[in-house]
Amino acid sequence: MSVSVPAATLNIVLNGFFEDNSFVSGAEATAADAEIFNALSAAPDASVFPHLARWHKHITSKGDAINSLKAAEAPVAAAAEEEDDDMDLFGSDDEEVDEEAEKLKAQRLAEYKAKKEAKGPGPAAKSMVTFEVKPWGEDTDLDELEKMIKGIEMDGLVWAQKGQRIPVAFGIKKIQINATVEDAKVSTDDLSDLMMEFEDHVQSVDIAAFMKL
Asked: Is 50 exposed, middle or buried (0-12, 13-18, 19+ CB in 10 A)?
């Protein structure tokens, strides 16, 4: 995972993400949490970033164990690799292959295929995207606009519960809102185009941050 955004923006993005998630990936802390934790320069202000601060406090409580957290998928991958290494699909190297050896090879191939099919496909690749939606003027009803944005529904798209209001200039504020998307199902360009269709309300749509999960 790589993050290349300013610290202030990163805190906003992570606070929105941890509003709906306990950890970076899965139901327990992993190496991905340790990487994000080490990337933060200081503990977040709980009064400004309550969800990020809750996560930070939990990871901090692990002490030195933080750096020994395992990757989310590492145990599964290691087990699969061990199975592959230990399985001799083609029997012995002897030139003479009798009928029993052929049967054994076929049996092992069938068992190997059954195990692979039982595991099923791996987890879908996801990203967290932070959109910034700028209205035409200060008279635009941002609450109504946010409802319209979150009314966009796609398979593989999950909006954060609440967007942020960021001052721009002359009393105008823009909406900053996070979305978790499945990379194979949701195009950020399509999402931006759909938001731009609210032409009476929206002046521009930009992506402030993009983070692989």
From this structure: middle
